Amino acid sequence: MNDGHLLLLASALLAVPAAAQDAPEVVVTGRGLASAPGERAYDTVVIDRAAIESDAANRLETVLGRVAGLDQFRRSDSRSANPTSQGITLRGLGGNAASRALLILDGVPQADPFGGWVAFPAYALSRLGEVRVTRGGGSGLYGAGALAGTVVLESATPDQLAPLSAEVAGGSRGSLDAQGTAALVRPGGFLTATAAYARGDGFVPTVAEDRGPVDRASPYAQASAAVRAVVRSGATEVQANLSAFTDARERGTAYSAIRSRGADASLRLVGHGRWGWSLLGYVQTRDFANQFPAINAARTSVTPTLDQYATPATGLGARVEVAPSIGGGADLRVGGDMRALSGRTEELYGFAAGTPTRRRVAGGRTLTAGGFADASAVRGPVTFSLGGRVDAWRISDGRLKERAFSGGLPLTDLSFPDRHGTEASGRAGAAWRVTKPLTLRAAGYRGWRLPTLNELFRSYRVGADATAANAVLTPEHLWGGEAGADWTPIGRVKLSATLFDNRLTGAIANVTMGQRPGTYPLVGLVAAGGAYRVRENLDAIRARGAEVDARWAAGAWSLSASYAHTASRVEASGAAAGLNGLRPAQTPLDQALTTIGWAGRGAALSATLRYVAAQFDDDQNTRRLAPATTLDARAAVPVGRGWSVELRSENISDTRVETGTSGANVIERATPRTLWLGVIHRER
Predict the structure, then answer these.
(1) Which of 159, 226, 628, 663 is buried deepest, with most CB atoms within 10 A?
(2) What is the pTM for the complete model shown?
C-alpha cells in the first residue's frame, strides 16, 4: 500500500462517523475486548504509560525488565546483543533464545516467524499505552505458545496522545535517540503516526582485560515507523495498523555485522454491542543477516567463518473471538485462531583465504490452528476462571541443502519428514476477596510450545562454539500451579505475593556433546577451545519460586518494586545426563528492582535500582557470570510552554554487567555508563 492509498483510506475511515451525527457520543479507544473478570485470579503486573515514559534507556526491553523474572536469554539490550538472543521467558525456565512467553501487540503475536526472538527496535515507546504481564502459562485467548506467560502490549489511546510530540537526545559515544508522534483525533476515530531513530558509535563488548587488536566498538543504527487508523461506526471499531523497522548492528569485530528488517500489517474489527466480538487478520515479513568471525586465541587476527546473508520469513494469521452476553455475573469468550510461519536461512561458509566455498539453505514451515473457550463467573466474593484450547500443529517442508561452489553433486540434500499432532492447554483459577483489602488467589495451568524453524533446521556458531539444529525436536509442555495474595489497604497501595511450581517437560536446550577439536555433524570443524552442542529435548526443567510486587503512591511521589526468587533445576538422562541437577543456562536465582519517582508542575524525576544474581552462560554451569547491581535515573524539567529538558543516565556507577563467556574464557559486557541530554516538545 503506497502513501497515497494510505491517506485515502484514513480520510475515508475518519469520515464515516460524521454521517451519524445523531448517534450518542462513543469513546474510541483502539483496544480489543475488555479483559475478562477471571484475570484477577492470575499473577498479573501492569506497567502504565507514565512508567513507560520514565524509562532511562527509552527501550522496550528495559521497560519489560521492571517485572522481575521476565528475562531475555542474555543481559544485554538491543543496541549490542545479537538479535537471536532476544527471546523472552518467565519464571526461571531458561531458554535457548526462543521466546517461551507469548508477546502480543494489539492482538498480533510478535515473535520472529523464523526464530521466535523479539525485534525490540521495532517498538518506539511513544506508541505504547500499556504493558500487561501475566506470569504462568495456559492462557489460550491470544493463541498458542503462552508457555511461561503472556506479555500484552497495547497501543496508546487518544487521551494518552498529544497532537504532536517529539523528543531528541544526544548521548555518550556519539549516540542519538529521536522519536516523534502525531495524532489526529476526532469524535469518531483517530489517526496516529510514529517514527523513531537511534544510532551510536557503540562500546567495545569484550571486557578490557580480554581485548586484543581485533576488538573494536559495536555501532548500531535503528529506525521504525508505524501508522494506525481507528474509527467507529455504530457499535463496530475498525483498527488498521501498518509498521516497519530496520536494525543494523555490529558485534565488536570485523565480519560481525548484523541486519534485521521487517514490516507488519493488521486489520481488526471489534464489536462493542450486546454481544462483543473481534475479527483479526495480519501478515508479518522479516529478513535477517548475520556475519560470524573466527578469532585466534591471542585476538590478533579475525577471519570470516560464516555469512548468513538472508533469512526471509513470513507469518500469516487470523483470529476470531465472540463474547456472548450471558448475564448473571458470568463472562464467556469463545473463538479460534491460526498462525502459519515459513522461513529459510541462506548462508555462505567454508571460507578459504576470506572467500566462501560453500552455500547452505535450510528452512521449512509450521502451522498451528486451534479453538479456545474462556469463562469467568463472579459469585459473591469469589471469582472463578476456567479456560482451555485445543490446537492442531504441523511441521512441513523441512530441508537442508549444502553445495560447493566448485560444482558437482550437493554435499548435503536432506528433506525431513513432515510431522503433525494435536495439543491441549488450559488454565483454571479462583480469586477470593476475603476482606475489602485482601484477596487470595490460586491457579493451575498447562501450556505448550512448538519448536521454532530456527531450532529445527538451522545450525549456528558463536565464536569457537558451534550448535547443531535438530529436525526431530518435539513440542515443550508445562504443568504449573501458583498461589498468591493481593493486599490493597488503601487505594494507591498494593502488595502482591505469589508462590509457584512449574515443570517444563521436553525443554529444548543446547546440550554440549563434545569439547575437543574435530569435525562434527551439521556444523563441520570445531577448533580447539570450542564446544560442540546439539539442540535436544531435555527430560524437564523444574522451577519453583516466589514473586513479590509492590506499588505505592502519595501525592506527587510513587514507588514500585519487584522481586523474583527462582530455584530452577534440570532433570536429564541419556546423552544429557551430565546436566542433571544443574541450573538452566542464563537463569539467575534472584532478581530485584525498585523505582522511585516524583512528578509535579510539569517536572518528573525517577530512579531505578536493579539487581541480578550470578548465573551461568552454559548448560554445564562452568562459565559463571557475576552478579550485577545497576542504577538508572531520569529527570525532565519544563523550560517553556510544551517544552522540557531531559537528562537520562543508564548504569550510573558503570557496573560491569557480564553477558556471556566464550570457550576461550573471553567475557562480554552489557551497556556501560551512558548519559543523555535531550529536549522534549508536546503540543496540547
Answers:
(1) 226
(2) 0.91
